[in-house]
């Protein structure tokens, strides 16, 4: 969850990372701190359709991508599912 590790918020300021209250705990965010979430995300698949966002979908299609790109993404998806299926 890169936004936590990089201490980013939607507005770029405000709690919990940029809080004006000196008594506010800013938290300790580090890789591996949420092992159950990591285990769940490790088994999840996300494909962006019409959006390319590395935090939401590490690969996907944009609206103007053609057939070749769609086949490439489809192959990557299929190979990942085959590799990780139970």
Write the layout of secondary structure elements.
Layout: H1 2-5, H2 35-42, E1 47-49, E2 59-61, H3 67-84
Parallel strand pairs: 1-2
Describe the structure.
The protein is mainly α. Helices cover 35% and strands 7% of the residues. It has helices at 2-5, 35-42, 67-84, and strands at 47-49, 59-61. The protein has a two-stranded parallel ribbon. It is elongated, with a radius of gyration of 18 Å. The mean pLDDT is 79.
Structural class: mainly alpha
Order of helices and strands: HHEEH
Reported for the largest beta sheet, the result is: 2 strands, parallel
Kindly state the mean pLDDT as a whole number?
Answer: 79
End-to-end gap = 24 Å
Q: Report the principal-axis shape.
A: elongated
Oligomer: single chain
Q: What is the beta-strand fraction? A: 5-15%
Count of distinct strands: 2
List low-pLDDT spans.
none
Major sheet: order of its strands?
1-2
Helix content: 25-40%
Instruction: Determine Rg (CA atoms, Å).
Output: 18 Å
Q: Number of helix segments?
A: 3
């Amino acid at each position: 969850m890169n936004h936590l590790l990089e201490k980013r918020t939607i507005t770029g300021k405000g709690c919990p990372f940029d809080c004006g209250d000196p008594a506010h705990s800013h938290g300790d965010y580090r890789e591996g701190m949420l092992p159950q979430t990591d285990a769940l995300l490790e088994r999840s698949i996300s494909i962006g359709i019409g959006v390319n966002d590395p935090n939401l979908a590490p690969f996907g299609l944009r609206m103007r991508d053609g057939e070749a790109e769609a086949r490439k993404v489809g192959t990557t998806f299929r190979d990942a599912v085959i590799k990780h299926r139970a």
